Amino acid sequence: MRRAYWPVTIAAALLVGLLAYGLTTNGTDTTLDAAVAKGERPEPPVGTALPRLGGEGSASLADYKGKVVLVNVWASWCDPCVDELPLVQETHEMMQGKGGTVLGIDVKENSGAALKAVDEFGLTYPNLRDRDGDFVRKWGQTGYPENFVIDREGRIAAVRRFPITQQWVDETVAPLLDEGT
Amino acid sequence: MRAGLLLMLALVLASPAAAAPPRASLPDIEDEVMCLECRTPLNVSTSAVADQQRAFISELIARGLTKDEVKAELVAEYGPRVLGQPEDEGFGLAAWLVPILAGLAALALVILTARRWRRAPGEDVPAAAAGEAGAAGTGLDPDDARRLDAELAAFDR
Lengths: 181, 157
Hints:
The complex is a heterodimer of chains A (181) and B (157).
Chain A: H1 6-26, H2 31-37, E1 50-51, E2 58-59, E3 68-74, H3 79-96, E4 100-107, H4 111-121, E5 127-130, H5 134-137, E6 146-150, E7 156-160, H6 166-178
Chain B: H1 2-19, H2 26-30, E1 34-35, E2 40-41, H3 48-62, H4 67-78, H5 93-118, H6 121-124, H7 127-130, H8 142-156
Antiparallel strand pairs in B: 1-2
């Protein structure tokens, strides 16, 4: 090969390598789903604290250790998310008396729009803001809404990548509330 | 005198207006903003999240914010990714580095190619062979040059 073509070849190889790296690192991570499906309880991905919706300061999952937490990933521009909000609120009310809480993660929307939905549905559980979706991406997010149940040890006990139902709450969340009490 | 005063008054009144930044508009802003969920420019995005972002921008414009203020508010609400700028860490760093490296590689290629072209014709082929079949500077070896001559001669017939 002529000497002058070497830089082009190296540059092309680097670009192909970069593309491959991008495809492998930016794809959907199914590690959590696979672990939970096997009956394991993986640790949640390490994430930074998120700003509180409609409040001062920030919070993270670590602040809720010792409680059963239903993490509800939502946005008011997502119709299925809005549709499940009444049940999420009812679930929070049920969990509250048993050492549990719902923690809403509002994704990719301005706080004004999110707070409007909070008011409209009378949501009383805490909500954090994932402004650009970076937090939920680490949880292998594939769509909206998504729900994760965290046990009292701070481990992921259940994953539901679509809206919750009363039956799922009864079968999944309720037994976890009885654990370690 | 009166005309002069009127002219002065007009200039005084006009100057703040001229100094004021241009009024922001949705079409001017939405082509510089990304739809966060669709990962496409907002002006070509049709999803629900894009509609909400547009409504938010319109609301800010209605409040009298300038284009720069609107963009600052968007970054405050949605993070820096909303302006379509790649991150300066992790894989996003590649978006900054690759164009620079590609530019350097292209420059190196141009310099190498130019240096080859500038070489004297006699440099590639020894002087003795240079006269053979007009091969000098063509990069052909003597056998190929002879074959080429033969083909051309046949073509001329």
